[in-house]
Q: What sequence folds into this?
């Protein structure tokens, strides 16, 4: 004899065993899509329409995009689109000091003047949340 709620749960569990979990890449893509929506809501246009800068959004302990490639001379603008959390930007391969804490809608900009890979991180969240990014600067 089968107790109906138990049978349903067992059947559901056996079905879920065949449904793959979302990959880390899919989760990051979903978070970054949300970040872009928040950016558009905050500033009234998509981040791609910013003139003269490449935008990296900071949202839910992620940099969106986490990695990007830009030519020498590009200014990257990091924008906090979180609701309450503050973030920083620390460029590892430069002598630039860590940014001040960026609260929602605040920004930090840096112009990349030399080619190479430039790793960066969020000071308060890189160890616990793995909030790390990379800019590849091409000649």
A:
């Amino acid at each position: 004899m089968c107790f109906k709620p138990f049978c349903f749960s067992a059947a559901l569990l056996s079905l879920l065993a065949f449904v793959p979990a979302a990959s880390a890449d899919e989760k990051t893509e979903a978070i970054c899509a949300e970040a872009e929506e928040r950016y558009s809501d905050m500033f009234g246009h998509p981040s791609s329409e910013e003139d003269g800068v490449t935008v990296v959004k900071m949202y839910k302990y992620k940099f969106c995009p986490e990695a990007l490639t830009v030519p020498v001379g590009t200014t990257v603008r990091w924008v906090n689109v979180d609701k309450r959390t503050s973030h920083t930007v620390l460029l590892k391969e430069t002598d630039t000091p860590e940014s001040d804490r960026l609260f929602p809608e605040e920004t930090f900009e840096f112009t990349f003047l030399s080619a190479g890979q430039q790793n960066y991180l969020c000071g308060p969240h890189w160890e616990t949340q793995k909030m790390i990014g990379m800019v590849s600067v091409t000649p």
The CA atoms of residues 73 and 127 lie 30 Å apart.
